[in-house]
Amino acid sequence: MARRPVLSDSERETWTTYITAATRLQRAIDVDLQSRSGISASEFEILSSLWDAAEHRLRISELAARIDWERSRVSHLVKRMSGRGLLELASCDEDGRGTWVLLTREGRLVLLRALRGHVEFLRQSFFDSVEPDQREALTAVSRRILDAVEP
């Protein structure tokens, strides 16, 4: 028997609740980071990725792959952040074609200042709303969804 081409009431409720919560949480994270730290959630993601990388540097293509963005989007934001002194761009000595993105001292300071408020916000808006056993279930469901949509 073929599936119906429309969502059931239960499916629609699940989907709508999930997508609304995810969208509002992401928007609230962005607003909180902007107001507390003066950086966007996108900038925070780039700074965090570089912080986690060996020698606090990645090629633009590696950074794009790590955060699952288009290379052009990463390049555009990296140039803006470089202009603000948060990042530095350097040629790759190995092949001369690539560009390294390096976390500057100022970028590290901005990230570290942002982290305390960001963790506090995540605890208040997300983790305090989800019981430990629910976190495990949410993690398992999220992994299954990621597996289903991975190329």
Automatic annotation (TrEMBL):
<dbReference type="InterPro" id="IPR036390">
    <property type="entry name" value="WH_DNA-bd_sf"/>
</dbReference>
<dbReference type="Pfam" id="PF12802">
    <property type="entry name" value="MarR_2"/>
</dbReference>
<dbReference type="InterPro" id="IPR036388">
    <property type="entry name" value="WH-like_DNA-bd_sf"/>
</dbReference>
<dbReference type="GO" id="GO:0003700">
    <property type="term" value="F:DNA-binding transcription factor activity"/>
</dbReference>
<feature type="domain" description="HTH marR-type">
    <location>
        <begin position="1"/>
        <end position="147"/>
    </location>
</feature>
<dbReference type="InterPro" id="IPR039422">
    <property type="entry name" value="MarR/SlyA-like"/>
</dbReference>
<dbReference type="GO" id="GO:0006950">
    <property type="term" value="P:response to stress"/>
</dbReference>
<dbReference type="InterPro" id="IPR000835">
    <property type="entry name" value="HTH_MarR-typ"/>
</dbReference>
<protein>
    <submittedName>
        <fullName>Transcriptional regulator, MarR family</fullName>
    </submittedName>
</protein>
